[in-house]
């Protein structure tokens, strides 16, 4: 098989790692942002520390701790599982920051108006605040998805057979260190560019809505 | 048990600190080289001639679009086939510099764009030449606007330097991994390495945030 | 008005933005030392006309001549002609547009050094003179953010004057200011008019126009609707549109 078809065949693995990590991050991120807005100082402090640690540690180090550290001990893990857990945790921290920023962007008057109308806290969050915040968060979430797509190359180091991993193998066996990596770069750019365009479009649309309001 | 871990940590620490020093070195060098190239690319992308703008934008998009890990492999394994063989250290610095240049040029360009149009018009109306407007009005302010984001990126590139592990550069992660391979105490030594990374990134993050707050206070009326 | 006396002439100046004629064939002669106020509803093209004079907007057609030197704007204007024009025509903006990263003194001195080639000492000396004239010598070392809007606008006037222009353009110089801060800017402008400076002022300040201007121009739809001595135009407007506009302003 030629190198391009080998790389293309690995695209689903890269997309799988990216999508699964993003899904985990999107959900855990909600938990983290709820924690950061909690009534209790302790909960706020713990949530904040978790976010800072997950954002402060290089993702590859986190992956190694999970796969070689924890995975070599009591908890046996497949590379794919370790990859998705590691990148999922990193995503949770970053997405919680995206959520937090978007919540701050909802005008205070919206909370006050909902209070004045006598809406419950749950109704206020779910029906009034979340829809507005989500629109603000969208571009940031897509931007993170692009970063995550590129970060997914890291999981080649723990043996997940995604784009980077098969490219490396091919380069090593064929002795050609240039073409395979150029093609891999092109594939990442080809997948990431539509996402980048989408994110920019969302951002512009949001700016327009905001101007009109 | 606990004290055993700590005595091990004490034994590993010197090697890990050696590694950390290498990480800091390649980060610093890449930032210096990358920022200069990034500024030039930003100015080219900001220029009025398409001839300069297009190649600059294209290079930046390619640099930002590929994973840093691919950039490292490409420089280390790819360049020899076009006749440029680099030692590991130089290859890492070159690759990280290119990544830095791509990202920072985008950050700087955004900063240059954020300089209010009214000030450019005022400079035009005063009869200042285009190069004077860039030199005295746009660049100083654009860089100031970009500074907090650039500092944030500096922390990121320090984290990215851990990818040099893949080329065998004896930086922090490589040192931790090789101790792990010898002792089979992966969890302990990798956790210690993680803490060392955090000892740099978290305080640095606080400083950047503080600096950003101070700067935004100064620039608003 | 005799052609020979005019320091600035516009002939058939036109400027179109996206199919909309912002300035639609304006011709105008301004005498040396004359103070002209331009009023009109928003979108009447008065600001665009002003910005055409120092080529911040390049007209689609028409000629502009300053002190007898003709600029045909239909071709490309050379960088040298542009600089020559702009050092003779000073401009003050609605939003001041001081450079926020320079002190008040640097704001005024830098253009003198770069455009006129003055030495730093010479430029600073001239800047201090002008700051004194606008009553702000104590603010020389302050940054713009530490000045009120009225003070910033007075600095902006000093900055434009520092290049020794022959004509000063004012684009709604008090519109962004609270009324009492606007007054201090108007006082400086009044003083400047007394020194014999040629001034074109786009403004909504009818009182200023009535008391300081030699001539009042009313614009609508990119054209000059009517013009004349301020009292005459204000007391006896010839056009229905002028009457509507004036009464709308007075009712406020």
From TrEMBL, chain A:
<dbReference type="GO" id="GO:0006865">
    <property type="term" value="P:amino acid transport"/>
</dbReference>
<dbReference type="Pfam" id="PF00528">
    <property type="entry name" value="BPD_transp_1"/>
</dbReference>
<feature type="transmembrane region" description="Helical">
    <location>
        <begin position="181"/>
        <end position="201"/>
    </location>
</feature>
<feature type="transmembrane region" description="Helical">
    <location>
        <begin position="53"/>
        <end position="74"/>
    </location>
</feature>
<keyword id="KW-0813">Transport</keyword>
<keyword id="KW-0029">Amino-acid transport</keyword>
<dbReference type="GO" id="GO:0043190">
    <property type="term" value="C:ATP-binding cassette (ABC) transporter complex"/>
</dbReference>
<dbReference type="InterPro" id="IPR043429">
    <property type="entry name" value="ArtM/GltK/GlnP/TcyL/YhdX-like"/>
</dbReference>
<dbReference type="GO" id="GO:0022857">
    <property type="term" value="F:transmembrane transporter activity"/>
</dbReference>
<keyword id="KW-0472">Membrane</keyword>
<feature type="transmembrane region" description="Helical">
    <location>
        <begin position="6"/>
        <end position="33"/>
    </location>
</feature>
<comment type="similarity">
    <text>Belongs to the binding-protein-dependent transport system permease family.</text>
</comment>
<dbReference type="InterPro" id="IPR010065">
    <property type="entry name" value="AA_ABC_transptr_permease_3TM"/>
</dbReference>
<keyword id="KW-1133">Transmembrane helix</keyword>
<keyword id="KW-0812">Transmembrane</keyword>
From TrEMBL, chain B:
<dbReference type="InterPro" id="IPR020846">
    <property type="entry name" value="MFS_dom"/>
</dbReference>
<comment type="similarity">
    <text>Belongs to the binding-protein-dependent transport system permease family.</text>
</comment>
<dbReference type="InterPro" id="IPR000515">
    <property type="entry name" value="MetI-like"/>
</dbReference>
<feature type="domain" description="Major facilitator superfamily (MFS) profile">
    <location>
        <begin position="1"/>
        <end position="221"/>
    </location>
</feature>
<dbReference type="GO" id="GO:0043190">
    <property type="term" value="C:ATP-binding cassette (ABC) transporter complex"/>
</dbReference>
<keyword id="KW-0029">Amino-acid transport</keyword>
<feature type="transmembrane region" description="Helical">
    <location>
        <begin position="82"/>
        <end position="103"/>
    </location>
</feature>
<dbReference type="GO" id="GO:0006865">
    <property type="term" value="P:amino acid transport"/>
</dbReference>
<keyword id="KW-0812">Transmembrane</keyword>
<keyword id="KW-1133">Transmembrane helix</keyword>
<dbReference type="GO" id="GO:0022857">
    <property type="term" value="F:transmembrane transporter activity"/>
</dbReference>
<keyword id="KW-0813">Transport</keyword>
<dbReference type="InterPro" id="IPR043429">
    <property type="entry name" value="ArtM/GltK/GlnP/TcyL/YhdX-like"/>
</dbReference>
<keyword id="KW-1003">Cell membrane</keyword>
<keyword id="KW-0472">Membrane</keyword>
UniProtKB/TrEMBL annotation, chain C:
<dbReference type="GO" id="GO:0005886">
    <property type="term" value="C:plasma membrane"/>
</dbReference>
<keyword id="KW-1003">Cell membrane</keyword>
<dbReference type="InterPro" id="IPR027417">
    <property type="entry name" value="P-loop_NTPase"/>
</dbReference>
<dbReference type="GO" id="GO:0016887">
    <property type="term" value="F:ATP hydrolysis activity"/>
</dbReference>
<feature type="domain" description="ABC transporter">
    <location>
        <begin position="8"/>
        <end position="246"/>
    </location>
</feature>
<keyword id="KW-0067">ATP-binding</keyword>
<dbReference type="GO" id="GO:0015426">
    <property type="term" value="F:ATPase-coupled polar amino acid-transporter activity"/>
</dbReference>
<dbReference type="GO" id="GO:0005524">
    <property type="term" value="F:ATP binding"/>
</dbReference>
<dbReference type="Pfam" id="PF00005">
    <property type="entry name" value="ABC_tran"/>
</dbReference>
<keyword id="KW-0547">Nucleotide-binding</keyword>
<keyword id="KW-0029">Amino-acid transport</keyword>
<protein>
    <recommendedName>
        <fullName>ABC-type polar-amino-acid transporter</fullName>
        <ecNumber>7.4.2.1</ecNumber>
    </recommendedName>
</protein>
<dbReference type="InterPro" id="IPR050086">
    <property type="entry name" value="MetN_ABC_transporter-like"/>
</dbReference>
<keyword id="KW-0472">Membrane</keyword>
<dbReference type="InterPro" id="IPR003439">
    <property type="entry name" value="ABC_transporter-like_ATP-bd"/>
</dbReference>
